[in-house]
């Protein structure tokens, strides 16, 4: 896996143009893509910078062969088991298609991500850029991604969003994502079917598209079972072990009433499990626990974790298939939704209703 060390042009780059025009890389990219709207004064500034720097704008698709084509994956990190598995699937599929592949790490920094895109947009060998992971969708995010999509498209390359929602209509980007809502619905429904009614959910960052989808699934399952959503049982946390551990410690200290926890990923579930054990609570005898992802650690926990299976490697493979095959607009194949299913282990136990209808914590 390679961090950013892409091939550089001998002359000025798009990043140089952006700096000279005092605009963002994304804005410079938009200004040089005729089919994307940019304010005329801004476009003129960028064109002036192009002229002053003698920057060569390439708008025709370069000639590539499979053996010289690169499929690039842009990701915040590969420490996460999820992203590592997606990268594995992508690399395997790229090899099956006879393509080279490379991973570019941004550390979750938006500016770094733009720099990565700017460099990839300058490389003739880039057949596709696959950007991976949930994101907070804002107007600024959509504008940045649309600009990158158009810049890649102008050079015959393709943007694929992996685990992210579609961009606005007309943006040349393909999408493969998980059914976050369906997976969360299945996890919550499983707990409800086991008699639990007070189900605490530990979520990731509130505005993340992944969190939003999973909270919607949780809420829909409660509604379908005739259970009111208690906002106090929806606990936002950082999407890691320490964040979930601290959040769980806090709610236990507040004596919040719940009989089960649905954690939005398995790493968070492991943090919740540690906090529960520290308080002398047993899983599943006192509290039932469900995770999400089905990463290897899920079956190694004590007790082994009931969780939602997500086809991580298949997501990487599906993203490469989209990148190479490039389904036509309107074909119905531009967006692929990968299914999930629940994996039953031993961290959930039927709840025996007491007189109050809740087990005290």
Automatic annotation (TrEMBL):
Coiled coil: none
Residue intervals of the HTH lacI-type domain: 12-65
Protein name as annotated: LacI family transcriptional regulator
Classification via Pfam families: LacI, Peripla_BP_3
GO molecular function, one term: transcription cis-regulatory region binding
Recorded superkingdom: Bacteria
Keywords: DNA-binding, Transcription, Transcription regulation
